[in-house]
Amino acid sequence: METTLTSLANTIxxxxxxxxxxxxxxxxxxxxxxxxxxxxxxxxxxxxxxxGTGKILLGTGGQLKSGYLSDxxxxxxxxxxxxxxxxxxxxxxxxxxxxRLALTGNITGLAGTSxxxxxxxxxxxxxxxxGFAGDWYLEGDQLVLHSDNSLGTGTVYFKGAQFLATNxxxxxxxxxxxxxxxxxxVVIKNDLVLRANLNQYLVGVDGSAASVxxxxxxxxxxxxxxxxxxxxxxxxxxxxxxxxxxxLRGDNTGFLGNWVIDKYILPETSDVNIASNKxxxxxxxxxxxxxxxxxxxxxTKKYYSDSRFGAGTITLGFGKLRGDATSTxxxxxxxxxxxxxxxxxxxxxxxxxxxxxxxxxxxxxxKVVIALRNGxxxxxxxxxxxxxxxxxxxGFSGDxxxxxxxxxxxxxxxxxxxxxxxxxxxxxxxGLVGYSSTATASTYNSSRGRAYIYNDIIxxxxxxxxxxxxxxxxxxxNSSTSYNANFEVQLxxxxxxxxxxxxxxxxxxWEIRGNNAAYTGDWLVQSDYLDTNNTATTEGNSPGVDxxxxxxxxxxxxxxxxxxxxxxxxxTINKGKTGYLRNNDFQLGGQVxxxxxxxxxxxLTFTNALQGTGIMNTTATMAAGSILAPGSIGVTDxxxxxxxxxxxxxxxxxxxxxxxxxxxxxxxxxxxxVGGHDRILLDTATGYSSDVSLDGVTLSINFLDGFNFNTLTxxxxxxxxxxxxxxxxxxxxxxDVNVLSRAYEGARLQLLFDSGSxxxxxxxxxxxxxxxxxxxxxxxxxxxxxxxxKPSSVIR
Length: 796
Prior knowledge:
Blueprint (H helix, E strand, L loop, with lengths): L3 E5 L2 E5 L3 E4 L8 E4 L3 E4 L14 E3 L4 E4 L10 E3 L3 E3 L2 E6 L7 E3 L3 E3 L4 E6 L3 E3 L9 E5 L2 E4 L10 E4 L2 E5 L8 H8 L3 E3 L3 E3 L7 E5 L9 E4 L3 E3 L5 E4 L10 E4 L9 E4 L10 E3 L16 E6 L2 E6 L9 E3 L4 E2 L5 E3 L3 E3 L8 E2 L4 E4 L3 E3 L8 E5 L11 E4 L10 E5 L2 E5 L13 E3 L4 E6 L13 E4 L3 E3 L2 E8 L1 E5 L4 E5 L3 E4 L3 E3 L2 E4 L5 E4 L9 E4 L3 E3 L21 E4 L3 E3 L2 E3 L2 E4 L4 E5 L3 E3 L2 E4 L2 E10 L2 E4 L1 E9 L4 E4 L19 E4 L3 E3 L4 E6 L9 E4 L8 E2 L5 E6 L13 E6 L2 E2 L5 E3 L2 H4 L7 E7 L2 E7 L7 H13 L13
Parallel strand pairs: 2-4, 3-5, 4-6, 5-7, 6-9, 7-10, 8-11, 9-12, 10-13, 11-14, 13-15, 14-16, 15-17, 16-18, 17-20, 18-21, 19-22, 20-23, 22-25, 24-26, 25-27, 26-30, 27-31, 30-33, 31-34, 32-35, 33-36, 35-38, 37-39, 38-40, 39-41, 40-42, 41-44, 42-45, 43-48, 44-49, 45-50, 48-51, 50-52, 51-53, ...
Antiparallel strand pairs: 1-2, 28-29, 46-47, 71-75, 74-75
């Protein structure tokens, strides 16, 4: 078929099929009418007016094309004329190496017109096309956009094409030369419709050679599809590019296919950006379209459905997902490939909530690692949180590495492995959070929320265990009490590492169920409870190693432990703080330091050592072989107020004290002044028994370095145990005679009972008990059982 070329009134018209190739018509000032024929250009000089200076009228069947004459003509072809679309025209880049076509003029056209992009090479749209109201049909290779107004206002239909926004010049080879000129965002306001039977699309950002960080393709229109199965792949085109981004702002619920985020894609910064202008985390209870309704307590809480990705699956490869400054929800299933970046979820300063299922890609060849690392964070103000709710994440076998961010799991989710089956690494400033909004006032006592974390956990640095959730108010006839809706989180995996775990925040308790013998770090319990479940602690381990708490110290700083059983870890109650042990009796096999208050209604048996300057609001028993040492032995509160005073102190027992035969009491002397030695005090005002048997007990006296023996004189008395009703048998007294001889010749120590006090007296070798003491001892021998029940003031 031959092309009909007509020249009339300074206009050249093409029709009748065929192709007209123009090498140089730069002197032509008239218009071109292209309808039912092809007009191609070969000039590779962007400054040349190959088709002159007039307008091109593109009608139905008309086609603009990049052509070629010889190998020397391979390269970018330019049409600089303004184009008015008057029908259904086409643009085409010849399927030859480097035969890209660039349209640098402005495109206009009424609604109902259209441009179909065909061919195997890219076409660059570089003009201001805001006056084009027609549609675009993209078939084959790339349509590359250089400005916000590249596509006009119509709808864009994809059919196997690639769609690209760029910040670089078409001929750019020098990043320094073009960076400033093209460092800008490209805004796409058109609706996008995918309608081909192919499954591969590309919507992305290209840094080209002039890589400019921070440039974005912002898609404000709505994406949909008119077939059931489609796929959109979003990525940056150039592997050398810095992080670039595609931003999704439209309502894409009409898109039925899947997404592959294969290189750089975020929301609202760099990569695919999820803007929140279509997503409100909580909306009013008014009827609103596209909402997810969740029943909470006595009302309803409504969330906007995720309108950005539709209902398909998101496959996350090289790319990332970013939340903006507000809470962001993604309800799609997410599949993770083994080439995901180190920090695939970026949501600094916000909460990213995933309610779909998180899985590994079935083609992965290596373990996936999700590394979430953000800026500085405090336990009360984390930089960001990734919340996993309601989904079945058991198909995710990868590891988590957390630094300065929190993972949150639903406390009401009892079916699934919230974080999959891999290992969680807490690398400092990180935490695990139990969250619940499912508990109700009516079910508070019978159905507490519970979350399960089955993963092994490796700890380094300072990290947190927190609880979040809505408040439930439980009322009775006398009062109303508010409780946090999250009650129980179970750590079923094994914990290891040398970091610090802080139990803080609202909630009820964290159940410790794993074998944590390899954990050498400490615990700091600032609120609520760790739960032991009263399970065995030494199975498969050496005595003294607690499989639940490891070999570090358990600091109770306003929180506690419940469940009962044996705990072999060292326990410290920080100065001025209260620690709690509850629900069952405990056997404490580590060194327990009480520098605040140990509070419990349970019975505690100490099999190792008890020391400190504080209050024992508990029923305490010192087992055979244990040591009771008021004051401290050079210990400081590692996570509380440092002990800067001497190691002399007083332990006060408010619920009674039992010293079993074979136990030892250690009393230190720093001076002979008031308050210069350790003391044990029974506070009988609590109403508990003050009976204390000293039968078989050893009392060891230790003079500290710096004790001035010149101040110790014959007849000095010191009360060691006060406020008790004492058994008539004196304990075995142990001290260093050679050290004591520095005081005066023949110096020795003598024990006496006196009106509810155990008295230590400085005596000499010839001393015998005072008459009162002889009488008491004689009475005891005559009666067989002798007790003094009269309390007295402290004797110094």
